[in-house]
Design brief:
The N and C termini lie close together (5 Å). A four-stranded antiparallel beta sheet has the order 2-3-1-4. Helix 1 packs antiparallel against helix 3. It is globular, with a radius of gyration of 13 Å. The model has no long low-confidence stretch (mean pLDDT 98). By secondary structure, it is of the alpha+beta class. It contains three helices and four strands, in the order βαββααβ.
């Protein structure tokens, strides 16, 4: 199994209400890919980090294997969610993939 973890910071120009909306949209969009993209074992978005956090939200996901992760990255359903709800609103993305 492969874990795929991403941390994002949202753009500075987003106000608190916009940030809450964006985080909810990202959560709904990415978690909605469960059962829609082959090889996804688990997909969860955390939007309520503690005040000590320096990221606004986190994707915590698991895939059957590295090939499933590669397929997810180019899957049209995932690309649509990323292009619609994630990329336009984020300024920083940090990713770590690892085998478990």
């Amino acid at each position: 199994m492969v874990k795929h973890v991403i941390l994002w910071q949202l753009k500075d120009e987003l106000g608190p209400e916009d940030k809450n909306r964006v985080k909810a949209d990202i959560k709904k969009g990415l978690e909605g890919l469960a059962g829609e993209v082959p090889g996804v074992v688990e997909i969860k978005v955390i939007t309520d980090g503690l005040a000590s956090s320096n990221a606004d939200l986190m994707l915590d996901s698991a895939f059957e294997d590295i090939e499933a992760l590669k397929g997810y990255s180019v899957n049209p359903k995932h690309v649509k969610v990323a292009d619609t709800y994630v990329r336009p609103y984020t300024k920083l993305r940090v990713c770590m993939d690892y085998e478990v």
